[in-house]
Amino acid sequence: MPTTALVLFSGGQDSATCLAWALERYDRVETIGFDYGQKHRVELDCRATTLAALRTAFPVWAQKLGADHLIALPVIGEISETALTRDVEIQMQANGLPNTFVPGRNLLFLTVAAMVAYRSGAKHIVTGVCETDFSGYPDCRDDTIKALQVALNLGMETRLVLDTPLMWIDKAQTWQLAHELGGQKLVDLIVEETHTCYQGDRVHRHAWGYGCGVCPACDLRRKGFEAFAVR
């Protein structure tokens, strides 16, 4: 029986790598993204260009790509006070978390994705959360994802699997995974088309892609790429 997966695809490096990972494993792959009032909403434009580039560069994968779902969740931006949803400086908070952490965001994303998967018959939901290279976000932890999978399956009387292919690898290994999945062609596509920068900078082009070059997301992407490049 054909297996369908739903990939949380933001338009960034991690989710693009997860999309390629899913396309190598499953018979049909749909994508889902969220407009939640993020400052770097240019990533939503990059979703479309990245998907188009993937279809062109990888015809076999193109045959597996199904519907793309873009869901508006403005409530997240309305009730959160974070550096991703407000015009404030990125800094650490008293609780030890950076103010780029949007409380409950991944929990809500995965819950909505589960609702879409339930309707479409997808049995796998793929997300790029990671406990190795991350900013301490508690909703990216393996325990969180496992607990949510149990809750979703109990609450929806289903058997969804939350796949986290990046959970235990660092950013350099994520670049390496992309290379293993699609060669230099996929690495170049991720560099050119995807977006990670928290500031939404699509003006400054670096060896690792576009971005301001100084925000935490750019710094992590740059360091990972540099480590990958010397292997």
Write the layout of secondary structure elements.
Elements: E1 4-8, H1 13-25, E2 28-35, H2 42-57, H3 59-64, E3 65-72, H4 74-79, H5 105-120, E4 124-126, H6 142-156, E5 161-163, H7 171-193, E6 205-206, E7 209-210, H8 216-229
Parallel strand pairs: 1-2, 1-4, 2-3, 4-5
Antiparallel strand pairs: 6-7
Helix pairs in contact: 1-7, 2-7, 7-8
Could you characterize the architecture of this molecule?
With 231 residues, the chain is an alpha/beta fold. It has one domain (4-229): Rossmann fold. A 5-stranded parallel beta sheet has the order 3-2-1-4-5, sandwiched between helices. It is built from 8 helices and 7 strands, in the order βαβααβααβαβαββα. It is globular. Strand 4, helix 6 (142-156) and strand 5 form a beta-alpha-beta unit.
Report the biggest beta sheet as strand number plus sense, adding barrel if it closes.
5 strands, parallel
Based on Cα principal axes, name the global outline: globular
Which architecture does the CATH hierarchy give at level 2?
A: 3-Layer(aba) Sandwich
Query: Uncertain segments of ≥5 residues (pLDDT<50)?
Result: none
In N-to-C order, the SSE pattern is EHEHHEHHEHEHEEH
CATH class: Alpha Beta
Helix content: 40-55%
Mean pLDDT comes to 90
Q: What's a concise summary of this model?
A:
The chain is of the alpha/beta class and 231 residues long.
Keywords:
231 residues; alpha/beta; Rossmann fold; five-stranded parallel β-sheet; globular
